[in-house]
Amino acid sequence: MTIFKTTLKRLFRAKSNILFLILLPLIFMLIAFSGSNGTPPLKVTVIDNDKTAVTEGIINNIT
User: Fold this and answer.
1) What is the 3-state secondary structure (H, E, C) of the chain?
2) pTM for the complete prediction?
3) What angle do CA 35, 36, 38 make, to 5 degrees?
4) Domain ranges of the chain
């Protein structure tokens, strides 16, 4: 536990580290999640040469 506390103190000593460790990942997550809302589903073409129950199940899960 002491090593963990010491490491955290060293990481957060410089204010630029706070930016890179906390703010930038949050900004990237917000951009990624906001970009995926409201987009129409992609159309996928599947060619099933095998025609087994397994491939039929996979195709049903995709569509």
Assistant:
1) CHHHHHHHHHHCCCHHHHHHHHHHHHHHHHHHHHHCCCCCCCCCCCCCCCCCHHHHHHHHHHC
2) 0.41
3) 100
4) 2-62
Q: Which two tokens stand for residue 48?
A: 């099933």
CA distance 12 to 7: 9
- Tell me how far CA of residue 60 lies from CA of 6, 53, 54, in angstroms: 52, 10, 10
62 in Cβ contact with 47 (< 8 Å): no
Residue 54 has pLDDT above 90, yes or no: yes
Q: Which residues have a Cβ under 8 Å from the Cβ of 44 and sit 6 or more positions away?
A: 62, 63
